User: Fold this.
Amino acid sequence: MLDLVKKALRITTAYFDDELNQLISAALIDLGFGGAMDEVLTTNADAIVKQAVITYCKMNFGLPEDYDKLKKSYDEQKAQLGMATNYTEW
Assistant:
């Protein structure tokens, strides 16, 4: 997941790896708070989960100019994951 996030943020150095790993972990925990199952978030993370993690990282890394737009997008992604039967335990 780290490589995907670094590519999305256009980071080529390992200098920020610790910070990005922390953000990835925080994103997965937050998506879990939203109702997504742990198995879906870690073992079987698909493109939808990965995109939500990337959005979370873009939103929280540095000082993005489009924070509000990213926050809204992430919140919608999180809500959709929390309501989808394939991603939650009903």
Observations:
- The first helix runs from residue 2 to 8.
- Residues 52 and 77 are 6 Å apart (CA to CA).
- The chain has five helices and no strands.
